[in-house]
Amino acid sequence: xxxxxxxxxxxxxxxxxxxxxxxxxxxxxxxxxxxxxxxxxxxxxxxxxxxxxxxxxxxxxxxxxxxxxxxxxxxxxxxxxxxxxxxxxxxxxxxxxxxxxxxxxxxxxxxxxxxxxxxxxxxxxxxxxxxxxxxxxxxxxxxxxxxxxxxxxxxxxxxxxxxxxxxxxxxxxxxxxxxxxxxxxxxxxxxxxxxxxxxxxxxxxxxxxxxxxxxxxxxxxxxxxxxxxxxxxxxxxxxxxxxxxxxxxxxxxxxx
Amino acid sequence: xxxxxxxxxxxxxxxxxxxxxxxxxxxxxxxxxxxxxxxxxxxxxxxxxxxxxxxxxxxxxxxxxxxxxxxxxxxxxxxxxxxxxxxxxxxxxxxxxxxxxxxxxxxxxxxxxxxxxxxxxxxxxxxxxxxxxxxxxxxxxxxxxxxxxxxxxxxxxxxxxxxxxxxxxxxxxxxxxxxxxxxxxxxxxxxxxxxxxxxxxxxxxxxxxxxxxxxxxxxxxxxxxxxxxxxxxxxxxxxxxxxxxxxxxxxxxxxxxxxxxxxxxxxxxxxxxxxxxxxxxxxxxxxxxxxxxxxxxxxxxxxxxxxxxxxxxxxxxxxxxxxxxxxxxxxxxxxxxxxxxxxxxxxxxxxxxxxxxxxxxxxxxxxxxxxxxxxxxxxxxxx
Lengths: 256, 383
Hints:
The complex is a heterodimer of chains A (256) and B (383). By secondary structure, chain A is of the alpha/beta class. Chain A has a domain at 3-79 and 242-251: Nucleotidyltransferase, domain 5 (2-Layer Sandwich). Helix content of chain A is 39%, strand content 21%. Chain A contains eight helices and ten strands. A five-stranded mixed sheet of chain A has the order 3-2-1-4-5. A five-stranded mixed sheet of chain A has the order 8-7-6-9-10, sandwiched between helices. Chain B is 52% helix and 11% strand. Chain B has a four-stranded parallel sheet, sandwiched between helices. In chain B, α8 packs across α14 (289-298), α9 packs parallel to α11 (214-230) and α12 crosses α17. The N and C termini of chain B lie far apart (42 Å).
């Protein structure tokens, strides 16, 4: 028996499959694209190609596209799934999780294995992956390239929180001939500042935080966040899959 | 009175009360019955009732006229104020159109300043609501109520006697007691009805102009629900949610739906749409009836008061009595007093009452239904 967790986010769709012993036996990620319904269909095909039948295995869907997975047995919100995934990754029962997603950022307080409190950003993309994407785009770079480059820059800030205004700030910085690394620095600094200010409502001074979501691969983002929060930021390559992992763990509780 | 209607039909009738009373208000006008428009739970309904006038709530609940309102008002103002002003300005609200006078209270800064503009095209009577609930405030509020009475007397050429006033207080006390009898059914676990059905009756009943007819109607409904509950008709057991915060109605009913579509049940409303406006009655035996009315209304716990002790008292009582599992606060964008008070409410709920709390900020659009669903579903998953 396999347990399937599918996290259809606004930007990327992540899949985690667990084996009987709840060990991860498959991880997949793909762009969500225009249609979550199509994405769910593609995931089904890929799973079948791996010899896993989603119709015959317990499956939980989460994320913004969770309603578009017809073969899922259950839907659970990304808050609960990220929390459960982060606990598994960190082998703990208490944590403060920061998830920087494609269109929203979540701060989740977990105590004794249960979600105790959470905050999500409102209808605004400041401090999310989307902000980074838009800025990287206007600089003709990939988001991960921008993050790496940011480490060598400094001395510039973007003052607008609104993505649209911030983009025009970036464009005028480019026009002014500001070196790319300085602009990249300003972009990452803006995201990290916004996330840290959101987290401050639940974060205790000096408390270590777990970072999940697509930005956990960028070493510099973690470093910059550590500096802003003045706390250790724990992450791992698996943290990108935290939501899907949490969903798969929930699937393991389903009796078909 | 024999009731042959099924419950869902009764709930829908209440839900339609607002729509149906568009015609009723026109008929009242044709019979020369004065109509007094109001915006707030602090409005002392008994004064117009005593002179046989109808009163109607004008608080608007749709985003239809917000664009029109934004021609005059700032964009980052609370949607309730913008919508109310927009409906008034564009003459799209029949209740506003037929109101002989509109009563505004100095509650929040946004409303207070909006009424100044509204006064340019409508008779607006402003009552100075104090910001505190001290004895000096009570004295001022009592004077304001007497001023309002005198204003109505001279405007309509009538006399409002103390007897009439006491009678109106008795009638409205009965209305409140009956509605309280209804919402107290939700103390049962499992609940007899959904929180949304309860809301339809509470909200709908505020649009019945002849208030003396409400008690019999609501009491009959209560009896029917009790009878069916005894026969085993009830909801399954669900996480029990209390809703607090800004007034709910129309567009913001999305919050109630989000709770009940994601596995919870709203057992009680602490806000203006529920207990806040119904919980307490007027002491009709009091020697000074004006003071009794003033006290009853001034004691309402709203975030415009400082300190807002009474809101916490009611909230705590409801949490205990309704065995609440989680408190959901809905605030409207740019409603400063409620938004600021969320921190104190959160602390009270999570530290004193030791249950989870979630605040959601919303407006009159439907574009955030997805986000609300995610937050509220996650909240219910926590319980």
